[in-house]
Amino acid sequence: MSKANNHYYYDEEQCQFVPLEYNTRKKLLNALSFWLINGLVLAIAGLAVLSNIAGTPAEIALKDENRVLIEQLQRTESAISKLEKNLTSIAEMDNQMYRVILGMEPLSDDIRAAGTGGSDPYSHFDFYSLDASEILRNTAARIDQLERRIGIQKISFEEIKNYYNLNQERLINMPAIRPVNGPITSGFGMRRHPILRYMAMHEGVDFRAEIGTEVFATGNGTILFAGRNGAYGISLEIDHGFGIVTRYAHLSAFASGISVGDTVERGQMIAYSGNSGRSSGPHLHYEVLVNGRAQDPIHFMIADITPEEYLIFKRENTISSETEITQLLISAD
Question: What is the pTM of this model?
Answer without folding.
Answer: 0.49
